Amino acid sequence: MNRNRRTWLWIFGLIATIAIFYYVLTIDVFSKKQPISTAQKENIDKVNSIEEMNKIFLEMIKNQKKQSGRIVMEDSAANAEQSTELTTNTSDHQMNSMSGKEHSETNIQVSGIDESDIVKTDGLYIYQLTDATLNIIQAVPSSQMNVEKTISFENNVSPSQLFIYDNQLIVIASKYEEAIHTNGKMSKRMMQEWYQATAVLIYDITNKSNPKLTRELEIEGNYISSRLMDGNIFVASSHYPDIWILEDEKSADLRPRYKDSSVNNDIKPIPIEEINIIPEPNEGNFTNIAAIDLNQPAREMTLTSFLGSGNQMYMSASNIYLASVNYPIMPLFAKEKTNETTTIYKLNINELEMELAGVQELEGRLLNQFSMDEYEGHFRVAMTKGDTRDSARPSSNDLYIFNEQFEKVGELTGLARGERIYSARFMGDKVYIVTFKETDPLFVIDASKPKSPRVLGELKIPGFSNYLHPYDENHLIGFGYDTQVTVSKEPGAPPIVTTEGVKLSLFDVSDLSNPKEKYTEIIGGRGTYSELNYDHKALLFDKSKELFAFPISVYEETKNVQDSSTFAFQGALIYGVDVNEGFQLKSRITHHNNGSGYENWEDSINRTLYIGDQLYAVSPAKVTAHNLNTFNKVGEVELFKK
């Protein structure tokens, strides 16, 4: 990364951090947030005018002043952005319309709905985002791999994700510019003149050596998540306007802005009729969703927006769900503690049209997108409430089920008291939930009757799974950590739980009332970690090819008192998985210089994929190709000069 970009982004990050801290102080710490009302479609209104919207914001300012009192700082910033983004279905050996070879796809959550990633392939080329550049790599034939084109971006553009669709390459980036002031004025509380937008850059890659930027789109706010379905991209962003400017300019237009170069290059506010409000809104934040038709490049994107937050996204073929955890920050000497709540927004989608259809606020916190699912018209969500460390309000875990009208019709509450959810997976009418505190209970839940879900079976084992992946109808794979429990030397103190090596588990759920951990594999010791522990897209899985591959950094235990473990390996591990034989290590692939006793960022293999009978390992430094049967290296191209 060049020095100007690094410095520029560091400064912006520092400013954003300070702004978020102030925002939390002035809004969350002192506000006694009342739970929002459950809202169905008939209770949701459109904003009729800027004046109406500003009255809502002015009421928020008034309430904040009452609650924060003397703490409100008249000349400080209240503008903040909250960032996010960091499945079955690896789409096994799919054929891309523009490729001639069988190839792997990104590991996704919902079949038919693609998710953006840092590496994609079309069966002939590999597309890689790294260090603010985009590499287009000719991958076939593997013995003649070469970098066909490298695309660089301006210093104020930070690319993070990409899609491939036909002969189009779509890059999602954060874009920073000088702030676009409302009516030419700047709020007294604005700390810095920054404007942040989520940018969507669309390239025509018919000629891979000469890609053409054909369309640029911007949606004000920071990037949340995105999906691609049937040639339509849905992109969500979050924007906190500077509502305090209304004290100086009551007619200020605080609507999020957008740009679509298919129409013109003007930056304009979202139409007022596309902004939704729920009864008694209390969040001065816009969540925006843009829908872009890749099959009709001249068609303007459609937009919808609502007052509220959403930083986890789940999408089905018919609906988008955006969820946000509301963390109460209590005064230091508060006598009572308040549990977190999670607000979930449901949007109906029909091609490019989107409509806010309902809102629910539930007690507890949602872990990630895999805590949400839709099946046969019912939305299911798994949540944790309470605190694993607080005996006065111990944690427990719940499953809630909602109908098509987004009304709660069923629930299963009070699971695993004192523990929290570490992973969840919905497979048809069955739900699998992993909780943990000292051991790892795997719960098998029957949700075939939405009004009365019930636990069928439970398994307690050491360690925990961060991620659950379906293997077949009767088996699933757990990926997480082994743990060690040590009795505390302090009388009455709870046991000490330490995380050890990475753990693979193959669960047999053929008998739903008696799940079993059939096979396990422990990799490394304390300090070992994998990107798959927190990002499902790091997994390459293909059952028919017996492929289960993931990036990893391995540390081994040492008797040295000063260091509990030492660096041993950086790269990717390739396993075979079989219900009769368990896990078989097939290969260890590394781009690391074995003479180095520490990890190198540029050598970290962050994705593996296959094209035909070749396995490709991708790192910032290089791409290597390996025979899928022998795993001998058959090709290499360098990307990063050390």
UniProtKB/TrEMBL annotation:
Q: Which InterPro entries match?
A: Beta_propeller_containing (IPR019198), UCP006425_b-propeller (IPR014441)
Specify whether Membrane is a keyword of the entry. yes
**Which controlled-vocabulary keywords does the entry list?**
Membrane, Transmembrane, Transmembrane helix
Compositional bias segments (type: Polar residues): 79-99
Membrane-crossing ranges are 7-25
Region span, Disordered: 75-106
Pfam families in the cross-refs: Beta_propel
The name of this protein is Beta propeller domain-containing protein
Q: What species is this protein from?
A: Cytobacillus horneckiae
- Classification lineage: Bacteria, Bacillati, Bacillota, Bacilli, Bacillales
